[in-house]
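Backbone shape codes:
===
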Amino acid sequence: MPKLNKKYRFLAIILAVSLVLLRGDFLPQKAKASSEGLAIYSLNVSEVTHNSAKITWRTSSTSDAKVEFGVDTNYGNWVSSSLKDETYHTIILGGLAPQTTYHFRAISKNQEGNEIISIDHIFKTEEYEDKTLPIISQVRVSFVTGKTATIVWETDEEADSTVEYGLREEFDKRKYSSSKVKIHEITLTKLLKETYYNARVKSKDKSGNESVSQEFRFKTLEGEELDDADLIISNITPISGDSPQISQTSAQVTWQTNRPADGRVDYGESTRYGEKVSSTPPKSINHSFVLENLKEGTLYHFRVKSEDIFGKTAVSLDHIFTTKSATEVPEVPLLSINMVTKAEALYKTATSPDVYAILKGRKHLIPSPSVFREYGYRWEDIKVVAASQLDEYKDAKLVKLPHEKNVYFLYLEKKIKKAIPNEKVFLSYGHKWEEIVEISSRDLVAYSDIKLVKTQDKPSVYLLEGGAKKPIFSAEVFERRGYDWSKIGVVNKTDLDSYPTGEMIL
């Protein structure tokens, strides 16, 4: 065979290299020496989105598949396939960051243990295109006066806030806040007294996706007392060192305001305070903060501050409490059965298993055999009487626990109880102090706490929650929220007015 001269030998080398480059996909990429003919080819990246990418390749013989990936050549993450004997491999990379360059390499190993690793490759994820609408929920009218209404709602992502409102469905007025938040609060001002308004809320996220709530109505109050009144702070706790709100290293501080307001507690070991905790939206009439990481057995000073929806502020006087020490043992009062009202007689009728104790000349139903035994009563002391004789006794509806000041009114047929807020309310019903009977705690818990109230002369129903009365917007809302019509307790106007008005239930 004739020898090629240098010129032809050079051209032959160039041709051979070109063929290698053209067929590069069919050659191993950074293969280990022990690959024994295992090769990766047709490595491809496709279906790249803002948070995922599809990696595919072929191998020259059956093998498993794994992709290592990351923002640099250290990779740091990997995904493998559950298929072990394939020649075509697919790996989906998920959970990626948008607009980010990723490095990756493919790895395959056959049954003989031969492994091949591709060279490093890169791809870039797409820009995230948000097309998801914010989800609006918990729309409510949290506070109403003669001239204002505060609307509160929530979204599942940060978005701006708009309330559109008007006397008709055209919504000719609007109030807007550009702040991107998840809890939204807008106070409408310069409203007409005792007037119905139609309203709806809107929220738009940073990508321009906007959601609109259902329409709702609210009515402003008749008077302007709440608009003109100063912001008032009341019912600050703790007020003594024996409070259960105080532990060795923490204390719970609570208070109320006569209008929705934010809250802040300044506290420290002197009147210079030095530490503070602040509330998060929305504004409320009930405020509660837990002061943590306190020193045990230490005297602390604190004061509370609030600013309402009108920008009015109130600051309390200085208060003190002392955290408990490690050696302090709280005193737990023990109930003595001698402290409850003594039964004058035990009656039942022949047609019913119910047993009544006669307390201060009134009959009180014993709720269970266990409560009967707790009182120390004896079954043989029960006297069977005619129903007409039992009916001569009025029901004992005013009860209290021996160790507490709270007096409760029992709605006997509904099996619910209501704490009477104050002396003024107590007397407004014509109650007499001597009619109160003292019962055990197990007896009292047989009655559920009242949640729903109304007055006799008006159809409006209120939810009692957090020390406030919250008007329920409509019968449809009442039923949608699963409330029970049979559990509504009728109260008088003095009783209802003793509660500040809270957010409307929508």
